[in-house]
Specification:
0% strand, mainly alpha, globular, MetI-like fold
């Protein structure tokens, strides 16, 4: 009987559990919730594109070309109108989400693996390792991303695979800089010294002591670089050196509609607005995750 009466008192004394605090931080952060909901909806749209798309995004019908969206007097058969080849704009927009999310995710993953490994190694070992990594970072920062990407894609040919690899190999510098700085701050802490004192191996120290305490900074960089990769893909596709027709791409849709921008501005505004919403959602979620997982907010 005494146990039952003391449990509520004990809960009041000890306060909320770490899980309860985490839920409070998550559901109390509006930016994180808005970004997560919008990004989740776009991911679901990309995953279920064959079900949601009303038409084949590649099907052409010149008899129905340049139909306006329904809010400008069009028909519900093509709610967002058709392009210059009569392809359904809504269907191409839905399938274009697959391209943007795929490129952003894989490019951020490739660059994250490269940059994180280099940054953590430089920050933890220091000395010559740090000097070599710093030199490589400076070399990379001296190379304009857009110009290098344009040159490489122009030489190798524009395709989805080439764009992903090129962006993944060009966007690692921010990961390396942030991870190096974060590791330098953490490597001198007491728990790292204690792990060395008890004889923990270097890989174990890096994985169990260093990485958990810098992962919040890594989350922010991942979201920033994912959004950066999506924008760069759109820019390359706009210039005709990214994803090639007839593959649906939001940047390519903007490029195809630019010639009619003065007469049919919706052809540029619709894919541009969706691209803006996607990048904003990724950044909101990244900033929210940074706030929620920050060490100073865990207690």
């Amino acid at each position: 009987m005494s146990d039952m009466t003391t449990d509520p008192l004990l809960a009041q004394i000890t306060g909320p559990t770490p899980g309860q605090l985490l839920r409070r931080r998550i559901f109390g952060h509006q930016g994180l919730l808005i970004g997560a909901v919008v990004l989740a909806l776009l991911v679901l749209v990309a995953l279920f594109a064959p079900v949601l798309a009303p038409h084949d995004p590649y099907a052409q019908n010149l008899l129905e070309r340049m139909q306006p969206p329904v809010f400008l007097g069009g028909t519900w058969n093509h709610p967002l109108g058709t392009d210059h080849l009569g392809r359904d704009y809504l269907s191409r927009l839905i399938y274009g989400a697959r391209v943007s999310l795929l490129i952003g995710t894989i490019a951020a993953l490739i660059s994250g693996l490269i940059g994180t490994a280099m940054g953590v190694a430089a920050g933890y070992f220091g000395g010559r390792v740090d000097a070599v990594v710093t030199f490589l970072i400076n070399v990379r920062l001296a190379m304009p991303v857009v110009l290098v990407a344009l040159a490489v894609v122009a030489i190798m040919g524009g395709s989805l695979q080439v764009v992903i690899v090129v962006l993944g190999l060009l966007l690692w510098d921010r990961f390396a800089v942030v991870m190096r700085s974060s590791t330098l701050q953490v490597r001198g802490r007491e728990y790292v010294a204690a792990a060395r004192a008890v004889g923990c191996s270097t890989p174990r120290i890096l994985l169990s002591e260093i990485m958990p305490n810098i992962v919040n900074n890594l989350i922010v960089v991942v979201t920033l670089e994912m959004a950066h990769a999506i924008l760069l893909e759109a820019a390359l596709s706009f210039l005709g050196l990214g994803v090639q027709p007839p593959t649906p791409s939001w940047g390519l849709m903007v490029s195809e509609g630019k010639n009619m921008m003065l007469f049919e501005p919706w052809m540029v505004l619709i894919p541009g607005a969706v691209l803006f919403v996607l990048v904003l959602a990724i950044n909101l979620m990244g900033d929210g995750l940074r706030d929620v997982t920050a060490p100073e907010n865990r207690s």
